[in-house]
Amino acid sequence: MLIFAIVISGCGKQANSASNKSGGYENGSITIPAKNGSICGAPNYIAYEKGFFKKNGLKASLVAKPTNISDLEAGFTSGKYDALNGDFQYLPAIQNGAQIQAAGGIHQGCVQVLVPKDSPIKSVKDLKGKTIATPGQGSTPQFVASIALQNSGIDPKSDVTWKTYDSDLLAKSAEKGQVDAIGTVDPYSYQAIKEKHFRIIVDNNNHSGSNKMEKMGMKKNASCCYLYLSDKLTKQNPKKAKAIQKAYQEAAAWIDEHPKETASILLKKNYVSSSKFVNEENVSNLIASYHFGLKKSQGKSDVKFYAEQLKKAGFLKEDTDINKLVEQAYYDD
């Protein structure tokens, strides 16, 4: 009995020593490229601010999110980044070797295609031959617009002209007549609608099940944003990958139950810049409309849906095997 007690005591000291060395974070440190001013990045901020990372043994650092997707890819390949709250825009990058996997749909749409209030454009079909501005080539707004175009019989590669502007200049470019329509994300989209009275042509948040939007490739209740994890974690450190997944699952559930408090945190901590219309009430309403919650199996079916749409729109290779791509792109824990 005495020997047994000594062994147990020794093991206890060893465990405590290991815990102290890691600072109490049993799953170690993670770095997340999170800061980009978007409302849909809320799970990053809430997991950090409300302690869900810490609860799951993770010491998290939130850093600026590169605007160039190739910089993000390089960050994941090198091990600089571990997780990302991002859109389905990463599917072509994954096909081309990006070292990330989607690990669950995290919220519904936050992307719209808009036109100025006095524009003669009434529908997507009116965009043929027109110029559309987005935050970047290969951005989710360009993909959403392209999906709507190809489902309306318009070739997104040859029947429209694309231009790129910084997110905060998109609405101005349309008002000045430099472009005919813009594709953008909240809060920029919301601000353009409320402040400048822009009209929505496409909305990829189809929670209501609009037949009009569904015909344009906007799937009902589909996840627009996903949790992405580094391949190095999903394949080499599944324990840590699952801890990150759990932290985001808990954060997303908390957001869905507390949209007003979430909005307050995002604005007060300057994760989202406030303005006359980007205020606590409006941000709270937007957050509620996103229906946050980590969806694993549905997330996988949504990834497959968007992969099919992107293939049709010409953003994936013509010979893409969709099922094979989804298995490559999705983390089944």
UniProtKB/TrEMBL annotation:
Every copy of the SsuA/THI5-like domain together lies at 42-261
Q: Source organism's superkingdom?
A: Bacteria
TM region positions: none
Pfam family name, one:
NMT1
**What PANTHER family does this protein map onto?**
ALIPHATIC SULFONATES-BINDING PROTEIN-RELATED
Protein name as catalogued:
Aliphatic sulfonates-binding protein ssuA
Species of the source? Companilactobacillus versmoldensis DSM 14857 = KCTC 3814
